[in-house]
Amino acid sequence: MLAIRWTGQATDGIFQSALASFVLFSPERQANALSAAIGFAVVLLPYSVVGPFVGTILDRVSRQRALFFANLARSANLLLVALFVFSGTSGVALTAVVLIAFGINRLILAALSAGLPLLIDSKSLITANATAVTGGSVLVVIGGGIGVGVRALTDSLAIANHADALLILMASAGYFAAALLSGRLNKFEIGPLEHEKKQASFMQGVVEMREGFHFLRIHSDAARGILATAVHRGGLTALTLTALLLERNSFNDPNFPEQGLKGFGFALSFAGLGVFLGAFLAPYGVSKVGRHQWIRLAILTSSACPIILAITQTQVTLILAAFLVSFFGQNLKVTNDALVQSKIDDYYRGRVFAVYDVVVNGAIVSGGLIAALLLPTSGLGATVPLCVSVAYLLVGVRLLRTSVFPPVK
What we know:
Layout: H1 2-23, H2 33-58, H3 63-86, H4 92-115, H5 125-155, H6 160-181, H7 202-218, H8 220-250, H9 257-289, H10 291-304, H11 306-311, H12 315-343, H13 346-374, H14 383-399
């Protein structure tokens, strides 16, 4: 499962760097907050649409088969994306095929999360999530770095669109490799269990999505942890949008977008380092104060980090804020994943993680769109970092207050 996840997520980084280069860092396209926010929406909204039916699929059919065919479909889909990018086609046609690609990606990630507890005992879930999720997040960043590097090497040999198309072909090969790696799992090794298999249907997907929400109402601490994770990811998206505009239009010459792309990739590398190191701290913190208290401490500490960027906006403060917010955010994410997994019986796990991803993705899109309304094209200003800081603080002191989110070890 680690090989499937990490191969796919490294490939995600390559694919996303190619899309960012084509859409936001092309010389003929002026990057602004709204276009970038729409880009986030294109990446994430597909799963919010298919989410009600993902739980049904993952709780009814072989998750191993779902991983195989989804990766295979994603590989084929990217061949069409590469063709559009090669020809310089944008607009509705490109958006449609990219929506399909990211919709498939959400099914894959949900299958990996739902199947993990069947391979790992409950006491090891924190460490397993830290390894799987954090390793995947780091590899997204590494994949993005590879994409930026290959893009720089091919930039002088081919026109921009052709160089981006080459990256997308590399991504197609990566997803094909992930499909082959899924063959190393037995058909029902990662679920669902034998007694859970039933015939999936359209209406059953809606019903089971509702059951996922109902299950979370019963386990309110898991629901609050999911909401806290969602708000953190939404804030992180707003800060990422700020970083993109700062690198593209303020820290570098807007007439040379390749410089902005390199600067943005550099900042993301430090964010990836924060994600990597954060995962090592999470198991230790949980062992000392428990999951609930560690989640609360992570979001409260995160609330102080964006203030650095609000005080002054330079390359150094951007990198520092990116590192710290990602560091504490990863502590929050891997701890809450384990909290949710420990509360949910496998019978409900697929649909609950479908709800989890829908809520988080909706927050990411909302964070991007709200930031787009507040950000100038230059990205300069303290408004967005301060709003993110206040949102994190409110989550820590209200949503995760001790009376409703008790510090149980």
